[in-house]
Write a structure and sequence with these properties.
By secondary structure, the chain is of the alpha/beta class. Helices cover 40% and strands 13% of the residues. It is built from 20 helices and 13 strands.
């Protein structure tokens, strides 16, 4: 998923050069005597927030457990990061603890054979049922939460909206109308950041709560090979992706713009709207802290005018099967610390809440970014739905590439949706699902 960036990933194996490219970014102070041990922690990415959080976690844990040193490694995001994790698990070289997605991307790692079960750990009783389902199989629970839940939809600049007299759109036609008014004012209407390929998927992935609202059986029928993206209502996400390109409502440097650059443009008002997951709001704290509360959120508008916010569960912290003995004991202590009061404080201080937590021991602080209140409004109104990856195990590896083609005018929306329908077959068959 995204990670929580919830993105769809490829499953190709990386070469040795990519493995050598894993960067050591920090560690706690070391200790070499008195039964001390050293474990390695793989961060949830290589962006500033992921890096800072992993190092803060390592340093705080070391202070509480002086005999254990935690060394932190980073990894790429997107397809490259997924490939690296799969390669390190299959070759027995994975860090002792790694931070990764929950949901279907976790299931693609074959947790029953590659991860240590954590079912009997004390903190498991405190996690929400939805999160537990997202990190479990029929055999065991494998992950602890880190970070908050978050929503997918449209992040927008409230000051631009106020200046132009715009209202939050509920229908897709209203969204397009707003975008055209923004363009006429000399501001980029919709920020597109294909420089980070995973970001191409938002109009599709963040629209899924709307799909579920129209067809509550869609996910089950999709898993059984009885629903397709080439058909409505799921086709809408592909159509929206094409329309933004066709109507020239996106930035000219869409092919190279990165997620971080798009967030800066959104915060400063150079761009007004950004289809995105709210989990990335922490990067705005790093780049534009004074503008953090200028950014709001709304769900992907619909034809009917009844939009629902799509929710992603928290990411997970996992231990590979190759972590054993004293290192396994230390790794379990690190995961328990993650959701202790001190670990929760670290998550709030560094991670920046993007929604509610998935464990009762952690609370969202009163100074959370303004868009969290926008998200909570959808929850209070019962206008939410889980992202597809939490209710179906099927995620084809090439969605981000297909949507870049659609969003760049290379492939039309219906053809792109059909390509993706074909793309998921191999994974469904690999999972042994009936009907495929």
């Amino acid at each position: 998923m995204f990670s929580r960036k919830t993105t769809v990933r490829a499953a190709a194996i990386l070469g040795g050069a990519a493995l050598m490219g894993l960067t050591l970014v920090g560690c706690s102070t070391s200790s070499s005597s008195g039964g001390a041990s050293t474990i390695r922690l793989m961060a949830g990415g290589n962006d500033p927030v992921a890096t800072k959080f992993a190092n803060t976690l390592a340093e705080g844990f070391h202070k509480a457990n002086p005999s254990i040193t935690v060394k932190v490694d980073t990894r790429p995001t997107g397809t490259d990061g997924d490939n690296l994790i799969k390669t390190k698990l299959s070759t027995g070289t994975m860090d002792d603890v790694f931070l990764y997605n929950s949901g279907s991307l976790l299931q693609a790692l074959h947790p029953d054979s590659q991860l240590q079960p954590l079912t009997d750990e004390a903190w498991v009783k405190d996690i929400t049922p939805d999160f537990k389902a997202a990190v479990s199989t029929d055999k065991a629970t494998y992950g602890a939460p880190w970070g908050t839940t978050f929503d997918g939809g449209i992040m927008y600049n409230k000051k631009v909206y106020e200046k132009l007299g715009l209202s939050v759109p509920k229908t897709w036609d209203e969204f397009i109308s707003n975008s055209e008014k923004i363009k006429a004012a000399g501001i980029t209407p919709v920020l597109v950041s294909y420089g980070d390929t995973w970001t191409s998927q938002l109009f599709v992935l963040a629209d899924f709560a709307n799909v579920s609202a129209q067809d509550s059986q869609w996910a089950d029928q999709y898993t059984a090979n009885k629903r397709k993206y080439a058909d409505e209502p799921a086709l809408a996400g592909f159509t929206h992706t094409q329309e933004i390109f066709d109507k020239k409502l996106m930035n000219k440097d869409y092919a190279s713009m990165t997620n971080v650059a798009a967030l800066k443009a959104l915060a400063t008002g150079a761009g007004a709207q950004y289809p995105m997951i709210t989990a990335v709001i922490g990067n705005v704290v790093q780049s534009n802290p004074d503008q953090i509360n200028d950014i709001g959120y709304f769900a992907v508008p619909t034809e009917s005018g009844d939009p629902h916010a799509t929710i992603w569960e928290s990411n997970g912290a996992y231990i590979p099967k190759t972590t054993t003995g004293d290192k396994l004991t230390a790794a379990k202590k690190l995961i328990a610390y993650l959701n202790s009061p001190a670990g929760c404080d670290a998550q709030n201080a560094v991670g920046v809440p993007a929604g509610p937590f998935a464990i009762s021991t952690c609370k969202v602080p009163s100074n959370a970014p303004a868009l969290v209140a926008d998200e909570l409004k959808y929850q209070q109104d019962n206008k939410t739905g889980l992202a597809l990856e939490f209710i179906s195990p099927i995620k084809g590896p090439n969605l981000e590439k297909i949507l870049i083609q659609v969003g760049s005018g290379i492939t039309k929306a219906p053809a792109g949706a059909s390509l993706y329908d074909n793309d998921v077959k191999a994974q469904a068959q690999q999972l042994g699902l009936k009907g495929w």
